[in-house]
Write a sequence for this structure.
């Protein structure tokens, strides 16, 4: 697991983007690049539909409600209903295709790690807790898969949405758009302020989760000895201690995550 990080005493790590590690994760995504193309296209259409909503709201207020234009009201309402239905259908299709592709990439990653474990010496399994190995296969690999797959989908869609949103803001109101851009540095500062703290808390949370997994596996393997020595209550207390540390760490991470997302 490495050295323990104490969130109370250790300073937050400096933001470092693990490009080399990210490239290693991406090698499992590249064989499926053709399956990503329709997902990227669906994301682009979904972004365009989402960008149409504020403009339709403007038409609803300015051209229909303020002018008491009933025909215009019906037209805009139908367009908004059509966009909502289209967005709903695109969401279902995108989620289905992504889940299918995501499961394939996740299996490839876990298979690679499993093959690596089969090639290691028995001494590795003596020195490494079983819960740590299970945590790597179950939790960490899943997070790596989401990072590599989601980036391919979210980065182009987010860039397109950012540019389209900025253009739409200036179309609707130049002064409010300029004010939003003026406040952008404050949002970036807030995001970076909590980024390091959140990374540190996530690492601590993963270590606590791994400890719980190791504790449960070792307890189950030694259950006969545990019962015969009448040490059930002691193990229950130890289990609660592990769980309390995990829950407290989880709650702290949730608060930091909320601030990191809400303040910018």
């Amino acid at each position: 697991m490495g050295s323990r990080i104490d969130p109370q005493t250790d300073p937050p790590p400096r933001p470092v983007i693990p490009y080399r590690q990210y490239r290693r994760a991406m090698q499992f995504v590249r064989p499926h690049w053709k399956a990503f193309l329709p997902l990227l296209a669906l994301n682009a259409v979904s972004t365009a539909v989402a960008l149409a909503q504020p403009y339709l709201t403007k038409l609803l207020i300015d051209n229909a409600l303020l002018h008491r234009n009933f025909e215009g009201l019906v037209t805009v309402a139908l367009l908004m209903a059509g966009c909502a239905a289209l967005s709903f259908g695109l969401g279902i299709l995108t989620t289905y295709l992504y889940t299918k592709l995501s499961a394939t990439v996740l299996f490839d990653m876990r298979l690679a790690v499993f093959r690596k474990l089969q090639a290691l010496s028995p001494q590795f399994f003596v020195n490494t807790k079983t819960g740590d190995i299970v945590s790597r296969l179950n939790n960490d690999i899943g997070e790596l898969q989401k990072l590599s797959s989601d980036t391919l989908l979210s980065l182009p869609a987010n860039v397109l949405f950012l540019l389209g949103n900025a253009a739409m803001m200036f179309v609707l109101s130049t002064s409010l758009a300029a004010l939003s851009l003026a406040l952008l540095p404050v949002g970036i500062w807030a995001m970076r302020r909590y980024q390091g703290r959140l990374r540190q808390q996530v690492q601590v949370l993963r270590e606590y989760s791994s400890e719980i997994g190791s504790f449960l596996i070792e307890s189950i393997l030694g259950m006969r000895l545990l019962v015969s020595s009448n040490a059930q209550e002691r193990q229950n207390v130890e289990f609660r201690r592990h769980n309390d540390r995990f829950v407290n760490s989880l709650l702290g991470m949730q608060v930091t995550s909320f601030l990191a997302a809400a303040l910018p």
Q: What stands out?
A: The CA atoms of residues 135 and 210 lie 6 Å apart. The radius of gyration is 25 Å. The chain has nine helices and no strands.
